[in-house]
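Hi R.,

Here's the chain you asked about this morning:
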Amino acid sequence: MKYELSSEGSCPLVLISLGMNEQVNIEHGSMVFHNGKVNLEGRMNQNGSGLLGGIIKAAARSMVSGENFFVTTATGTANDALLAISAGAIGNVKALDVGSRKWCLNDGAFLACDSSVTYSMKRQSVGRAIFGGTGGLFVMETAGIGTLLINGFGEIVELELDGNDTLVVDNNHVVAWENSLSYNIKMASGIFGFKTGEGVVNEFTGRGKLLVQSKNIAEFASVLVPYLPIPKK
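And the predicted structure, written out as tokens:
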């Protein structure tokens, strides 16, 4: 994928250059503008064939992973096609190399990917599904070869575990991690973890990379609640 960011700060536009018949998949609704040489086509967000099977898989992905029911495929109709997209979250955009590395994505992390990259549902244990918001019963795992763009709320920080480390991360700050890492979901400090002001955490071990976001969308929303108007009955 040939792309550049409009700035290095938060909320950049992602400017994607496409050649004739080149394709990228982008998050539904993320298009800001194009130069008239891009064809956009919405389709169900699923990997598989058949209309009924596709509907079921797309609906399942939407319900269990927080991803949109639809994804948009952008195709260049000339060699100088230009497409600009923007993430829904107020924060950074980061590229991940998919191929020898496979990544798992938290809810809403996906922004765009090469047409040669796919991502599908990977089942979690029931315990992880009950205690974590990270995908519910499933998380999304990448496949194929190419570039995947993710977005985060605030700054995205890359951490690396060398096999001897343990990292405990608040569940709402996890963006993506290599599937070589093992993780467990638990309360921040036992059954009374809520008393510390923290909630559910992910404990990562093994060797691989982990990406976290500096801000917490749930916490941000709670800060806004006192300022929201109360609906009249």
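Residues 48-66, 129-135, 192-197 have pLDDT under 50 and may be disordered.

Let me know if you need anything else.
M.
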